[in-house]
Amino acid sequence: MNSKKPHILKIGALSLLIICTLLLLVTYLGALHIDNNAYRNLISLILFSFNIIILLTWLYFGMTASLICLTIASMFMSLAVAVSRDPFLNWHLVIFCLVMLISYYNDKKNSVIRGLQVAELEDIEKDINTLSDEYQQHQLQALALKKSFSRFNILKEVTESLSSSLSLAEVANLIVKNSFNIIGKADACMLFLVDEKKHKLILASIRKNSELKDLKVEEADLFDRRVLRKKQPLIIQDIRKDYRFDYETIKKQTREFRSLICTPLISKDRSIGVIRLDTMKPEVFISEDLRILNIIADLGAVAVGNAKLFERTEELAITDGLTNCYVQRYMRQLAREEIKNTAGSENKMSFLMIDIDYFKKYNDDYGHIAGDIVLKGVARMFMRLAGPKAIVSRYGGEEFAIVLPDTNKKEAVRIAEEIRRKVGERVFYLRRQKTKVTISVGVAAFARDTRDLEQLIDDADKALYEAKKSGRNKVCAF
To answer: In sequence order, what are the residues at sequence separation of 6 or more whose Cβ sits closer than 8 angstroms to the Cβ of residue 264?
Structure first.
């Protein structure tokens, strides 16, 4: 409405100028005593023009401007009646009022129409705003779905890659590689796994950028141990500003970093390791990064558990559960591979067949638990005394077999004698009693042109039979 005020003032000024001009003209013509009919027609024409002005002013500028024009027109009419002394001109006042009424009625009608149009326009604008908000929401949802789809695709690939391997070392490398690449903000990524024998975190895999090529990580620090102990993820925006830690105290206990995320690998409610990403830059990692790392850690925990279970299954499949020696089947497999590897060489290989003398008597006198103690004790001695290349297996019951690669018969007899002597010197405490055991050993070696493993085992078995027949606690060679 304020924008119309200058226009209303302009209309008022223009109308005043017009009325003054017309008044001068009327006064001048009245002074000339021209024809009264012509004079009255002129004034009527002017007053009629004022009706048009009033009407147009109302249409374009509203009631206020129209009332100004009506006031000016009424003043002009009064002056014109006074100058012309013609009361008939007062009828124009009625015409003015009719014009005002018509304008008012038309304005009301237009106001109703405009109100309906405004209401309809407001509804349309409201619908547009609603649709715009819905569109923006759909856009955000589409973007979120796109991100989620992309993330799920990545995690699907991670799951597939982890499930494709049962090697613990390969699984560890895959976990670190995917964490480092997917989050993409770290200078270094490390995976520590719990060593169940040493009861400590051991570095299983590490990945770092080119700037940290000389970085050496020997063991887990206090942050890794904290995450493992509490089974809770940890995010540090800036270690120098984090109120939870005294930077001056801990900076000597860990390598330098500024921002960190770390999360545990949990399997069956037990922490089996931690995965950590850190960088020398502050304020790098956000909660979304930690959320993704948690997902990778959950997938990694399953993969690590499967790999460890597979390793344990393989161990059980190839080793004897009591003595930790190889089982007979796996010993034969390793021996055949050893024969292939020595093809074209001097073809040296020896075989020891060992039997614990009177073992049944130990079981009868002291019980099976005591017998197990003897079996485990002599097995450890065999593995220690036979040498690092030897393949020691439990052949069955109280019998053991030892494959000696790159060993001729003479050297094999010497090793067998040393094993027999050391075992005979060993004291076993069975039911609080000191006791000793003896062994009988049969030795066989490949002939120069013979490469038959079954023949080698058979020869050693015959030599063992000879040692037992001739009084036991002996070494006999075939």
So the answer is: 227, 228, 231, 232, 233, 271, 273, 274, 297
